[in-house]
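Help needed: design a sequence for this.
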């Protein structure tokens, strides 16, 4: 049975077309003559914010189009993805099931309490069993236990998720007005968001080349007098891996781009940095906590401990190391995850 009763599904499940932008001014940026702005995807919705909206909404559209009323996914006890899916399910009329890593008897995290409060059925499994989350036989067993469902992989890492993240390119283009970044930086876990962004930029370029309008995106809103030579190319994209041995993210982004075969998805100008993981996924050493505290007080922008804290720390390190030529304009994506602050002492 299809879920929900609203016939105007595309309006109900729409991804926002733009997001607020914050200017981040700091002594080190002035000294190095680098400008930094941040796209505040954390502010697009009180709960369904950050990259989650972009990954989940196309999945829910696909679920509804195929007549599913139940969506199942996987995540850890503090997962931003599980938190967002529970909210989206409640809001858009889907039953949701969260298969949670770890059955060690720990009390429910605030993330899981929130998910349950939004009607998500939670099912804890051992870490060993959790490793089978992509195994077809295991998924069949889950169908036997729960009935049929639309499956969203852990972290929303599937083609619908990537295609949703392709829309980030036009959101950036619509939000920036006269700021033309040379480089866009974002935090990477699976690489899905980055793959979508890179493909989306390639698609924007392709569309502009195909249209009679010869000006590239990111340049269209500039008065002609301010069009500098550098606006004739699109920004490059730099991912910051938040886990140890994040080299797999490069392979994953490459695989995603190849599988999309979208026009322009061969967009080549991207890189993944693997030295900013601070000891591994969800590790939050005191040095990083001090950095985040100072940053938040100085700029009034909250960071999450798992993703955007490491992104921001990487930015400061790269600028201080002189890796950007004077005049460079950077854009950081705030991909949300602020619910994760509830469990971390800063
Ligand atoms: C807040 C936040 N930022 C960044 C990411 C990284 O996204 P991806 O897994 O697509 O690389 C995630 C994970 O989805 C996240 O929750």
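Sure. Designed sequence:
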């Amino acid at each position: 049975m299809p879920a929900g009763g609203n016939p105007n599904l595309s309006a109900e499940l729409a991804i926002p077309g733009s997001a607020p932008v914050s200017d981040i001014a700091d002594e080190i940026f002035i000294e190095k003559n680098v400008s930094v702005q941040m796209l505040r995807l954390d502010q697009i919705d009180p709960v369904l914010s950050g990259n989650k909206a972009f990954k989940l909404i196309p999945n829910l559209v696909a679920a509804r189009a195929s007549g599913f009323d139940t969506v199942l996914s996987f995540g850890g006890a503090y997962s931003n993805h599980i938190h967002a899916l529970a909210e989206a399910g409640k809001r858009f009329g889907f039953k949701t099931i969260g298969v949670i890593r770890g059955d060690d008897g720990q009390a429910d995290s605030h993330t899981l309490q929130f998910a349950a409060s939004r009607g998500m059925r939670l099912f804890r499994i051992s870490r060993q069993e959790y490793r089978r989350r992509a195994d077809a036989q295991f998924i069949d067993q889950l169908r036997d236990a729960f009935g049929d469902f639309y499956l969203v992989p852990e972290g929303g890492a599937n083609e619908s998720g990537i295609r949703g993240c392709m829309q980030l390119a036009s959101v950036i283009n619509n939000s920036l007005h006269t700021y033309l970044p040379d480089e866009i930086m974002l935090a990477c876990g699976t690489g899905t968001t980055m793959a979508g962004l890179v493909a989306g930029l390639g698609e924007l370029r392709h569309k502009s080349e195909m249209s009679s309008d010869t000006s590239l995106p990111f340049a269209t809103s500039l008065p002609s007098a301010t069009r500098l030579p550098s606006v004739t190319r699109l920004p490059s994209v730099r991912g910051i891996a938040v886990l140890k041995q994040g080299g797999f993210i490069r392979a994953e982004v490459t695989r995603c781009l190849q599988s999309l075969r979208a026009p322009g998805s061969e967009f080549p100008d991207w890189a993944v940095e693997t030295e900013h993981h601070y000891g591994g996924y969800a590790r939050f050493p005191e040095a990083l906590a001090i950095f985040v505290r100072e940053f938040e007080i100085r700029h009034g922008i909250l960071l999450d401990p798992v993703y955007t804290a490491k992104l921001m720390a990487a930015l400061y390190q790269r600028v201080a190391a002189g890796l950007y030529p004077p005049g460079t304009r950077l854009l950081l994506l705030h991909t949300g995850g602020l619910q994760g602050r509830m469990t971390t002492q800063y």
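The chain has two domains: 9-49+158-343, 52-156.
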